[in-house]
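Feature request, filed as a ticket because there's no other form

It would be nice if the structure record came with a short human-readable summary line next to the tokens. Right now we just get the raw output. Example of a typical job, pasted below so the devs can see what we mean:
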Amino acid sequence: MSEQATDHPGEPDGLERLWTPHRMVYIGGQDKPADATPGECPFCAVPARSDEDGLVVARGEHAYVVLNLYPYNAGHLLVCPYRHVADYTDLTTDEVVEVAELTRTAMTVVRAVSAPHGFNLGMNQGAVAGAGIAAHLHQHVVPRWAGDANFLPVVGRTKALPQLLSQTRELFAAAWPGAHAAPTTSTEDDPC
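Raw output as currently delivered:
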């Protein structure tokens, strides 16, 4: 049931409200660091796990690609520097270049595996800008399809994801260029 602005006190603004209660666990702080302490950061913990356990799709020298545990769409990836850094302007030149290259490669891989019609790319800098984990910078790579925003999440309070995250990770990792080379697990100089 959709709520109308006229159903509430104050001046109606003409907007309909779309409720997404399934996101409350995320909004409530599950697995989010309490502050900027690297030891509490899930993005610092992921690289120490196996690719399968951490849902890591690819690893570079300065950054890695991981599936989002709370995807907006199937195949939603995050490109994260290994270093615990919050602000894009604090990245080194090498980190900026690798985050950009991993983002480009992620788009190519997702296109080859899932044939999306487009992408949303972005970084939310700071909690007020929508960063769920503001203490550790991450670039979103969200595949989009015509009609992917439909009634199901709004009315049915259900998000249809066609595969388990582990299956999506396997497909993307196998399609990643150089996937058959020895895996890289370089986290040298890792301040996390």
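Something like this underneath would help us a lot:
The chain is about 25% helix and 15% strand.
Residues 182-188 have pLDDT under 50 and may be disordered.
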